[in-house]
Each structure stands twice: as C-alpha cells, then as structure tokens.
Amino acid sequence: MSYLLEVKDIVKDFPGVRALDGVSFGVNTGEIHALVGENGAGKSTLMKILSGVYPDGSYGGQVLVDGGEVRFDGIRAAERAGIAIIHQEFALVRQLSVAENILLGGELHSGGVIRREASLAEAEAALKLVGLEINPEIAVGRLGVGYQQLVEIAKALRKNVRVLILDEPTAALSEDESRNLLAIIKGLAARGVACIYISHRLGEVLELAHRITVLRDGRTVSTEEKTAMTEASIVTRMVGRELSGVFPEKESGTGNDLFEVSGWTAEDPASGMRVEDISFKVRRGEVLGIAGLVGSGRTELAMSLFGAWGPGLAGSVRLDGKELGITSPRDAIAAGLGLVSEDRKKFGLVLPSDITTNVTLASLDKVAARGVIDENAEILAAVSYIRDLKIKTPSPEQRAVNLSGGNQQKVVLSKWLMTAPRVLILDEPTRGIDIGAKFEIYGIIDRLARGGMGIIVISSELPEVLGLAHRILVMRSGRVSGELDGKTATQEKIMTLAACA
Ligand SMILES: Nc1ncnc2c1ncn2[C@@H]1O[C@H](COP(=O)(O)OP(=O)(O)OP(=O)(O)O)[C@@H](O)[C@H]1O
Ligand SMILES: [Mg+2]
C-alpha cells in the first residue's frame, strides 16, 4: 500500500548551503506526522517543496501522492493535489480584513460583485473551526500574532485539504489557544486528513503525533512510532548527542532599583489598544518575568515603554531615578533600553540585508570611528555572535531572509545584545528556537543579569518564566493583575491571575 504523501531522497541546494541532503519519509491518511530538528535542519525548506513554493526542477529526489510522482509548478498546483501549508512566517495581508484574507483567491461573487453578507458568513464559519469569535471585518494587521495564526489556519481549513502542513503553528499561541488547536488537529486527523506537524515544543509533539521523523543537517535520522520515543530520545537524535537542559541557578541577591515604571498609561494610536496604570520595578541584575494570556497587553506594554506608540498618556518611566520621557524607539535606545520584539519581521530584522548589517544596525557608534563605519569591526562583531549563539549560516554576508526562522531570531537577539542596554526587554525570546539553542539563550540572559543589566522577559511558556524570573508580573486586559515571587510562583498561580475574572 502506498503512502498518501511520500518524499524520497530529497536534495535541495541554495548558494553555499545544502539545505536538504537526502530526506525520505511517508505520511498515511489520517496520520499526524511530526517533523522535528534543530534550527536550520531543513524542515521549512522541505515543506516549501511539498507545497509548491520551490517549484519543479529546483530540487532533487521525488515527491509522491498516492504512489504517483508529482511535480508542482506552484502553490496552486499543490493545493489542487490537496496539500495546504500554514507557514512559519505569517503570509496574511495585514491591510486586508480577516474575511478578505480567509477568502483570498476564493471570494464569493455574484455577477462580478463580491457578496458581502455571504462572504462574512463564510469567514465566520471558518473562524468557528478554530474557535475564534472576532469581527471578520477588522484588518488583520490589528490582530496580535496569536490571532493572526488562527486566522491563517482557518483560511487553510476552508480549502479542501488532504494534507495539512503546519510549520510551528503554536509558537505564537498561548497555552489555551495551543490546546484548542491541538484538539482541532486531532479532529481533522480523525476525519482522514493527514497532518505534517513541525514544532520545537516536544511535549506537544509527543502528545499529538502518531509518528515522528527527526531531521539533522538536512538528512532523515529516523522515523519512529511516537510510543517508541521520549523527549530525551528525540533530543538526542536531533542534536546527535545527549543534552541536559537545566535553567541557570538564579542569583538571589539582586542589586538596587534600576528601572521604575509607575502609573504608566499609553494608547496605540493605530489600534486604540491601551495599557493602563502599570507600575513595577526592575532591579539591577534582576530578571522580571511578564506572563499573561495572548492579548493581555504584554507586548503592548513593551512597545509602549519602548516609545513605539509615541509619548505615554500618564505616568512615569525612570532609569536610575531619572525620568526618561521617551517618545520614540530612537529615544529609548539612546536612554539605554533594548527590545527584542516578538514580531521579528516588523520590528527586528531588515530581511534583505545581511547578518552583519542587521547585527550592527542599532549600535553603529560601536563600529564607527569619527562617523566612518569600520567594516572589519562590523564583521568581527557579527562573527562573534554567529559563534556564541550558534547561528547557522555559510557566512556573515548571508541575507537575513535566507536564514531559517530560528536563526533569524538569533540575529535579532544579537542586534540587541550588541547595543549593551541597561534594561533589555525580551518579548518571546525563544519563540521558534530549538531546545538546545534555548538553553544557550537562557545562559546568556543569566550572564547579562549577573553583569548588572535589568531584564524583562515576556513569555507564553510558563516553564520559561518560572525558570528564569526572580519576580513575575501577571497581566490581564491591559493591566497588572498581580505579582508573584519567582521562588514560590507556580503555573497554577500564574494562570489564576491571568485568566479573565
Ligand atoms: N532561500 C534561501 N537561501 C539560502 N539559504 C537558505 C534559504 N532558505 C533556507 N536556507 C538555509 O537552509 C537551511 C535550512 O533552513 P530551514 O528554514 O529549512 O530550517 P528549519 O529546519 O525550518 O529551521 P527552524 O527551526 O529555525 O525554522 C538553513 O541553513 C537555511 O539558512
Ligand atoms: Mg523553519
């Protein structure tokens, strides 16, 4: 019996990089097949071949559907064969409404006129499949990444899929939203849809998948039944050695007050979103965690403090007791703040530029003498971060757009580390980062804190918040709903404060 979808000896080259070097595995009808591997292992590249993004002829090996070889000349051809993909990087059109995005390419017409009522109903039905109750007429760009991801999934479900590929679909989702999505995927599989599921969250993979394929350096390491695997055995296959992931020991004695926010109220001029009456302190050497559900205002708080919303409406922000009066990100950087944004495409990276340019972008003063940029110093800086954060790239001249998702995130992190801020805000710093690299990043956060930096970590992964933070601020509906001591906090305590009252 042939597989519903099978790949055989797939090879894919990019200039200077062999991304795939002989990948083979098959997926059955109704099977959830997980694909795991380190950042840069080749997962997304393989999925782009399957979904027609890299067309016919640009790769070696075979793709088979129902036992017959297929060669897609584009995304439409893959869709006609029943293969749909939810990309790791969002593909929605920010300016269009939710409904327009969902129906894109399949609008309901009658005599050349788009049927608005019917279209909205259709979009609402699709949104229901992912448990989303939002107004389908609002622009997608106004939604947070968590909601955008669900819209993207709703869009794919509307097509007649036989194989649904999900490339890290839960990376941007909260605990609840992830659970909801996993249930949706299980339901689809029970109806015979095959799912290829890519994730760095191994707990999720073990819960969901029937079988697991591990990729390393563009090759298949193994395909096995889930029941034969544990988290440790997956990690060992992924990295080719054993890995003991532990959080760095937290230093208890933190220094004096460094960063103080009091009564901070701000509004996003674009969306009208607000954060209200926020007060907290970060001491020198302290890691403050911020937890909360998607949409609770964590990212918005970070953006507003960083000046992305212009001046605040009320309250004060002080560094070393001095009021900052930040009105733009430029002011924030000059004042000694850094922000690693969750939305790396919008705020973190210049995709067409190379790694060196991206890393040094916010610290040109450090690589320039009398206003002239020293290119050697720039490259040396980039090379040191490539080494420290293990960024997988053929050279510092590689363009950011050509890096894997996780490696892009490491470039964003490098950029802000290089500015050596007094206070560093990290918004979902390990989103899309593989498990080995995660612990490298935790180590870096710990080193920075020990060096006296004040660090704010926003994360939806509660073990990460609990493992890193000395104190945890929980947000709900744009306000602080409580504060917990890092030593005594638990997932339950955080969830209670985070859940809607
Ligand atoms: N368009 C491109 N040009 C050049 N190199 C590329 C391109 N796309 C991917 N690569 C390289 O191919 C390799 C595999 O990348 P891929 O995006 O498939 O990794 P991944 O397994 O999805 O990683 P992650 O977990 O970080 O998302 C990486 O070394 C990456 O830099
Ligand atoms: Mg990827």
Descriptive account of the structure:
- This protein has 17 helices and 24 strands.
- By secondary structure, it is of the alpha/beta class.
- The protein has a six-stranded mixed β-sheet with strand order 6-9-10-3-11-12, sandwiched between helices. It has a six-stranded mixed β-sheet with strand order 18-21-22-15-23-24, sandwiched between helices.
- A hairpin with a 2-residue loop joins strand 1 and strand 2.
- The longest helix is centred in the middle third of the chain and has 16 residues.
- The protein starts with a strand and ends with a helix.
- Magnesium ion (MG) binds next to helix 1.
Terminal-residue CA separation: 53 Å
Evaluate the radius of gyration.
Answer: 23 Å
List segments where confidence is low: pLDDT < 50 over at least 5 consecutive residues: none
Number of helices: 17
Largest sheet, in brief, is:
6 strands, mixed
Fill in the CATH topology of the largest domain.
Answer: Rossmann fold
CATH architecture of the largest domain: 3-Layer(aba) Sandwich
Sequence of strands across the biggest β-sheet: 6-9-10-3-11-12
The tally of structural domains comes to 2
Strands, total number? 24
> Given this structure, which CATH class of the largest domain is correct?
Alpha Beta
The overall pLDDT, averaged over residues, is: 88
Helix content: 25-40%
Q: What ligand molecules are bound, each kind once?
A: adenosine-5'-triphosphate, magnesium ion
* Shape summary: globular
Q: Tell me what portion of residues adopts beta-strand conformation.
A: 25-35%
Structural class: alpha/beta
What is the CATH superfamily of the largest domain?
P-loop containing nucleotide triphosphate hydrolases
